Amino acid sequence: MQPPPSSQSSEPAAARRPAQPAHGAQDRPAPHPVPGAPPQRAKRTYQRAAARKGHILEAALAVFAERGYHAASVADICERAAIGRATLYQYFSDKHDVLLALVEQIYERITERFAARTPVRFPADSSAPRPTREASVAFMQHRLLGVLQAVFDDAETTRLILRAARGVGGVVEGALQRLDAVILDAIAGELRGAIAASIVRPLDVELTARFMVGGLEKVVLSHLDEDRPLELEHLAREVTLLEAIGILTEPPSSPPSSGVDRNATPPSAASAADD
């Protein structure tokens, strides 16, 4: 009498093997240069998009410089960037949108540099010793020079964009208004602090800040627009002396006249009093 067939021997060989985990997507080799590291597709896509957008803006700037904004077309930009129209329209709605992005780059660069300035700390006690006239002028000149350097950090690009945007739906005007608001707020705050510390005489803060920004803005834009060379240190010193005469509690040293070395050391308070 033969023993009953074993259930184990009667099952197929595959059934007798230990169960294997299902091969899901997580078990497949990841298409990543580092074995086992999780792919970061979203991050790589964002970086590619940012680089592509910057490439389009560079191409547009070159086209605007060569042909002018009004004569340039989306096709010209795409040809320079070596892309199709569909690619450009992924980032910009039209040529005007491209120009807005270029102007926005200038705005962001200047405001970031302006915001990075070290805040001014005025003495809390108004009876504390005040800085000398020369020290006050030197400090104001240094602060103004930092703003000018931010504006002229890439003067050629700024000039091209401002020219391209002239008369295009108030593109430049809108950016300048927002930039003015940032700078006016900062200058007004510093003026209030200087008044409280008795460094600056009591004055109309808003009017004075607008006068400073408006006059300087006119000078800067005219030099950019007319391709005139501009010595930033010279401009900072001349504007500072002009403004300091009206806002310091004591008159500053006499501004240098024509033919006088602008780099000469300002006269001391004692020599000025003897004069």
Task: Name the descriptors.
elongated, Tetracycline Repressor, domain 2, Arc Repressor Mutant, subunit A, 275 residues, mainly alpha
Indicate the low-confidence ranges by residue numbers. Answer: 1-19, 21-33, 39-47, 256-275
Under CATH, the homologous superfamily of the largest domain reads Tetracycline Repressor, domain 2
The portion of residues forming beta strands comes to under 5%
Helix content: 55-70%
Shape: elongated
**Distance separating the two termini:** 138 Å
* Tally of contiguous helical segments: 12
**Series of secondary-structure elements, N-terminal to C-terminal:** HHHHHHHHHHHH
Number of strand segments: 0
Q: Using the coordinates above, name the CATH class of the largest domain.
A: Mainly Alpha
Rg result: 32 Å
Number of domains: 2
Q: How would you explain this protein's 3D organization?
A:
This protein has helices at 7-10, 13-16, 41-67, 74-81, 85-89, 95-115, 133-151, 155-165, 171-196, 205-225, 232-247, 269-274. Residues 1-19, 21-33, 39-47 and 256-275 have low confidence and may be disordered. The chain is 61% helix and 0% strand. The protein has two domains: 43-92, Arc Repressor Mutant, subunit A (Orthogonal Bundle); 98-256, Tetracycline Repressor, domain 2 (Orthogonal Bundle), CATH 1.10.357. The chain is elongated.
Summarize this structure briefly:
The chain contains twelve helices and no strands. The protein has 275 residues and is mainly alpha-helical.
Topology:
Blueprint: H1 7-10, H2 13-16, H3 41-67, H4 74-81, H5 85-89, H6 95-115, H7 133-151, H8 155-165, H9 171-196, H10 205-225, H11 232-247, H12 269-274
